[in-house]
Amino acid sequence: HSKGQPNKDQYISVEQGYHGSTSAGAGLTALPAFHDGFGVPFNWQHKIPSHYLYRNPVGSDPAAVIAASVAALRAKVAELGQERVAAFYVEPIQGSSGVLVPPKGWIKAMRDTCAELDILFIADEVITGFGRTGPMFACEEEGIVPDMMTTAKGLTSGYSPMGAVFLSDHVYQTIAEGAGPKAVGHGFTYSAHPVSAVVALEVLKLYEGGLFENGIKMGDRLQKGLAGLSDHPLVGDVRGRGMLAAIELVTDKDKKTPVPAELQAATRLFDRAWDNGLIIRAFPQGVFGFAPPLCCTADEIDAIVDRTKQVLDLTLEDPEIRAVLRG
Ligand SMILES: Cc1ncc(COP(=O)(O)O)c(C=O)c1O
Questions:
Q1: CA-CA distance, 211 to 121, in Å (whole number)?
Q2: CA gyration radius, the chain
Q3: Residue ranges in the chain assigned as alpha helix (H)
Q4: pLDDT for 35-85, tens place per residue?
Q5: What is the maximum alpha-carbon separation in the chain?
Q6: Which amino acid residue places its CA nearest to atom 7 of ligand 1?
Q7: pLDDT of amino acid 145
Q8: How many CA within 13 A on the CB side of residue 199?
Q9: Residue 146 Cα, ligand 1 centroid: separation in angstroms?
Q10: Residue 185: which pLDDT band, with cuts at 50, 70 and 90?
């Protein structure tokens, strides 16, 4: 609007992405549970397929997956008309669909394609921001700078509610100049709440005072530890980056058969983990999600890995799981 292009208003996001459940966010989200009954997505919200490396129809070759995503973005932009597309909205790692980690080079390829097509690249770093995957922001891993970035959780480490949107200078200047003497009509009752702002500043000091460094070391230990469980008969895929990880369970490793929905994997895994002293996020398709605090010690990371193995072994003894296991 500030640039006099009000028709450049179409958004593209990625299947299996999660961007919250406000009305605009829910429509960019591509998980059916957040659409049903809410009249979203809106007609300006479009999707392209996920990179989901473990189950991508083009196979698991990173170059092929990147090429397929770039081609899908180009095709969607061509379909909508380049002059109509405002932005591509994406998580550096898709968190709420089971920690789907794109192949190395994916995010850079998508960012470069957006720049070439004159589309804003908006990174949703609500989960990945503030050291969760190692660097301050996951986008840094591939040296890219988004045009806009959304953040929340790690900003205050959850001790006080706060979210923040980062704008690059060119976006800020365009809005500021377009608004002229008018106020920008956007904000919330609790915007810039001083208590949350103080907490965020203290949390940032702790991050930069050693927590990021610890998170990188412990993240490496976590990834190595979980990768060591790959040979377990129930483990189809181990993936993650830094202090964010997932294990996807299957009942047939060759065929990548998911745990049948009627076995209610999420409740089954969560309850068994909880009973064994392990707090995970259990996803409905049978995925363990891990996001331990950046202050974890080596012993705590080792305990997470040991207890995960214990929970996997107990699940293997579960008669209902045994009944659907291959052989
Ligand atoms: C990637 C991502 N974006 C957005 C959100 C939601 O943010 P909010 O609840 O502040 O709208 C979440 C919450 O889990 C998230 O994981």
A1: 29
A2: 21
A3: 23-28, 62-80, 106-117, 169-179, 194-206, 212-227, 265-275, 298-317, 319-324
A4: 999 999 999 999 999 999 999 999 999 999 999 999 999 999 999 999 999
A5: 72
A6: 20
A7: 97
A8: 17
A9: 18
A10: confident
Ligand 1: residue whose CA is nearest its atom 12: 20
Q: What gap in Å lies between CA 238 and CA 105, rounded to an integer? A: 19
Helix runs in 134-183, H state only:
169-179
With a 6 Å cutoff on the Cβ, whether 141 touches ligand 1 is: no
- Asked whether the beta carbons of 200 and 156 are under 8 A apart, the reply is yes
By alpha-carbon position, which residue is closest to atom 11 of ligand 1? Answer: 20
In order of their start, the domains of the chain are 10-192 (3.40.640.10), 212-324 (3.90.1150.10)
User: Which distant-in-sequence residues (6+ apart) come within 8 Å of 189 by Cβ?
Assistant: none
Ligand 1 and 25: CB distance under 6 A: yes
**Average pLDDT value for the chain:** 96
Q: How far apart are CA 172 and CA 178, in angstroms?
A: 10
| pLDDT at position 186 | 84
Is a pLDDT exceeding 80 seen at residue 86?
Answer: yes
* Residue 62 · residue 103 · CB < 8 Å: yes
Tokens of 291: 């996001």
Per-residue pLDDT tens over the stretch 133-175: 999 999 999 999 999 999 999 999 999 999 999 999 999 999 9
Positive or negative, the CA dihedral 306, 55, 250, 290 is: positive
Quick check: CB of 161 below 6 Å from ligand 1? no
Amino acid at the residue 78: A
**Residue 50 CA neighbour count, 13 Å, CB half:** 24
Could you tell me which of 322, 315, 302 has the C-alpha nearest to residue 272? Answer: 315
Apex 186 CA angle, 183 and 187, nearest 5: 115
Q: Does pLDDT of 327 surpass 70?
A: no
Give me the long-range contacts of 188-191 (CB less than 8 A, separation at least 24). Answer: 190/161
Cβ 153 under 6 angstroms from ligand 1: no
